[in-house]
Design brief:
Radius of gyration: 19 Å
Helix content: over 70%
Strand order of the largest sheet: 1-2
Shape: globular
Largest sheet: 2 strands, antiparallel
Distance between the termini: 46 Å
Number of domains: 1
């Protein structure tokens, strides 16, 4: 199992390297808006990648312990406290979220946790809208993006504080659309020692919500795991484990669509993407081991505090109150 995980991680790093290299070539001919790092910085060329690796390593640990995606922490924190242009940060954030999804997706499908019938209609809508969101994000001024990003992160913090997830939602009767698409399933729950049958409802409302989620995922480069799970679980009635697993698999589709828009516009740089992906993935491995020995509630509030500070930083940076 360890060897298999190592091979997957190695493959992802190679892919990320090629994508980042392609982005750097495009960036050299069509710069997005500004230089990624301050021109007068005295930092040696290897300084920023090293700092990125260290910071993202701890972000990977915090993401696992807090139950959030790496992109949600990466974009506001790196964008708010590093001298990189927000377009490059969002491009790297999508690839960071994509790397984690590609690593976890096959295993979740194999275990029967992620459901293809549930994922495919959602992925079709979300990935198409993520492309539109990426185009909108690249067309907007950095100031506007920072303001919108800060507001979105603070809204996400409010959702984390108020949301009450349900392990096994009680769906009495599936709606006509989910019945027509045959979206239902069964999976083995070790804690119960039995199979759990599930079905969903409010499918039209859920699919309409994913239009907004897709646009936001592409626009801000956050990935959409933070929004996928509440909609799948609380609105549509999928079990929590199925919602989490399907959300993780969805990222491998929606983030790919948006990421290529950033690559095509030269908003992906090797010095940001490669150390960030390595740091996040190694941090996630360590975070999984730490998870069993920590109190989830304490870590959750730590992540909420971190996101609140980063969201406020992005908002004030966009308003030019804190630069």
């Amino acid at each position: 199992m360890v060897k298999q995980n190592f091979k997957v991680m190695l493959l992802l790093l190679v892919i990320a390297g090629f994508i980042a290299l392609a982005g750097s070539v495009m960036a050299s001919t069509e710069p997005v808006a500004a230089a990624p790092v301050a021109a007068q910085s005295s930092m040696p060329w290897w300084g920023w990648p090293l700092i990125l690796f260290v910071v993202t390593f701890f972000l990977g640990i915090a993401a696992v312990l807090g139950g959030v995606g790496g992109g949600v922490l990466f974009v506001p924190i790196i964008g708010g406290f590093f001298p990189f242009h927000i377009d490059f940060v969002r491009g790297a954030g999508l690839l960071v979220a994509l790397a984690g999804a590609l690593a976890a997706g096959p295993g979740l499908l194999k275990k029967g946790m992620a459901d293809l019938r549930l994922a495919l209609p959602v992925a079709l809508i979300a990935s198409s809208c993520a492309i539109v969101g990426a185009m909108i994000g690249l067309a907007l001024p950095a100031k506007v993006v920072n303001i919108a990003l800060g507001g979105t992160i603070l809204g996400f913090v409010a959702i984390m504080l108020m949301a009450k997830r349900s392990e096994y939602p009680d769906v009495q009767k599936p709606d006509n659309l989910s019945s027509a698409l045959r979206i239902s399933g069964v999976y083995y729950e070790p804690s119960l020692g039995e199979n759990v049958n599930w079905q969903i409802h409010k499918t039209p409302q859920g699919l309409a919500t994913f239009i907004i989620i897709g646009v936001m995922a592409g626009m801000f480069g956050l990935g959409a795991g933070w929004a996928n799970v509440p909609v799948l679980n609380l609105m549509m009635g999928a079990p929590l484990k199925v919602s989490v697993a399907t959300s993780k698999f969805l990222l491998s589709i929606t983030d790919t669509s948006a990421a290529w828009i950033y690559v095509n516009n030269g908003a992906v740089l090797p010095m940001m993407v490669v150390p960030s992906i390595i740091g996040i993935m190694l941090g996630s491995i360590v975070g999984v081991k730490i998870l069993a020995k920590t109190k989830p509630a304490a870590i959750r509030y730590m992540v909420i505090g971190l996101l609140s500070f980063a969201g406020l930083r992005a908002l004030l940076k966009g308003l030019e109150i804190w630069n």
